[in-house]
């Protein structure tokens, strides 16, 4: 499963990229606003930190303006993936862009039927938001399982990008279901490295090693 960082914070992306485990980045208008940076500048910087796809989102609601915005966004770098909302105009834009060879991430997906439409529109990625789904009393991971089943039934190429990930259990469940990608805040990704028994184990080994008086 590919790991994307869901952030526009350069320092966090650098830190994760240095592990060699980062496969891409997703941003959205709220994350760009949180960074306090110019969207073109920060997107360009992010694109230079990974060879993987960097999702940059349109903010228009109509197809024509979405196409104009996509043109501006895709000129930022070769690895920009245009993010469009799961609406009729968003999917029209997805179809037009992917037919032209541009990567598209269809975002704000909350049902398996919507995911089916995104695949039919040729989306590179579909982003079901599991955390927000759970928050509203639905089962986010069941949504991922349903999309996996449908995409496998028809051998759709669209990758399932599990988004709105809140904790390690979401990551684990996504991997068990066979999602293609998950995008999570840096804190969640860093949390995956940690285990109390790993820390205790290191502590114990180092204490015993110190008693030997040796060095490597
Ligand atoms: C996905 O691409 C979105 O940026 C993101 O995962 C939204 O997550 P949130 O629900 O934590 O805002």
List keywords for this structure.
binds erythose-4-phosphate, 216 residues, 11 helices, 8-stranded parallel beta barrel, alpha/beta, globular, 8 strands, TIM Barrel
Describe this structure in words.
The chain is built from 11 helices and 8 strands. β3 (54-57), α4 and β4 form a beta-alpha-beta unit. The chain has one domain: Aldolase class I (TIM Barrel, Alpha-Beta Barrel). By secondary structure, it is α/β, with parallel strands linked by helices. Helix content is 53%, strand content 17%. Strands 1-2-3-4-5-6-7-8 form an 8-stranded parallel beta barrel, surrounded by 6 helices. The protein is globular. It starts with a strand and ends with a helix. The longest helix has 17 residues, at 196-212. The chain has helices spanning 10-17, 29-35, 39-49, 63-74, 88-99, 112-120, 130-135, 140-154, 168-177, 186-192, 196-212, and strands at 2-6, 24-26, 54-57, 80-85, 104-109, 125-128, 159-162, 181-184. Bound molecules: erythose-4-phosphate. Erythose-4-phosphate (E4P) binds next to α7. Pathway: Carbohydrate degradation; pentose phosphate pathway; D-glyceraldehyde 3-phosphate and beta-D-fructose 6-phosphate from D-ribose 5-phosphate and D-xylulose 5-phosphate (non-oxidative stage): step 2/3. Its main location: cytoplasm. It catalyses: D-sedoheptulose 7-phosphate + D-glyceraldehyde 3-phosphate = D-erythrose 4-phosphate + beta-D-fructose 6-phosphate.
């Amino acid at each position: 499963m590919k790991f994307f960082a869901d952030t526009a914070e350069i320092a966090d992306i650098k830190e994760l990229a240095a592990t060699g485990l980062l496969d891409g980045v997703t941003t959205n208008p709220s994350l760009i606003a949180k960074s306090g940076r110019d969207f073109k500048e920060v997107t360009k910087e992010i694109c230079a930190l990974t060879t993987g796809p960097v999702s940059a989102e349109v903010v228009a609601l109509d197809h024509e303006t979405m196409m104009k915005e996509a043109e501006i966004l895709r000129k930022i770098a070769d690895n920009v993936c245009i993010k469009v909302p799961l609406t009729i105009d968003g999917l029209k834009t997805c179809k037009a862009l992917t037919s032209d060879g541009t990567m598209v991430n269809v975002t704000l997906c909350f049902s398996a039927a919507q995911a089916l439409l995104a695949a039919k529109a040729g989306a590179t990625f579909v982003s079901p938001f599991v955390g927000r789904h759970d928050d509203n009393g639905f089962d986010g991971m069941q949504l991922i399982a349903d999309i996996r089943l449908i995409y496998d039934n028809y051998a759709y190429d669209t990758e399932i990008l599990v988004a709105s990930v809140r904790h390690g259990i979401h990551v684990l469940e996504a991997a068990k279901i066979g999602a293609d990608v998950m995008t999570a805040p840096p804190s969640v990704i860093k949390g995956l490295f940690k285990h109390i028994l790993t820390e205790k184990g290191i502590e114990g080994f180092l204490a015993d090693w110190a008693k030997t008086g040796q060095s490597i």
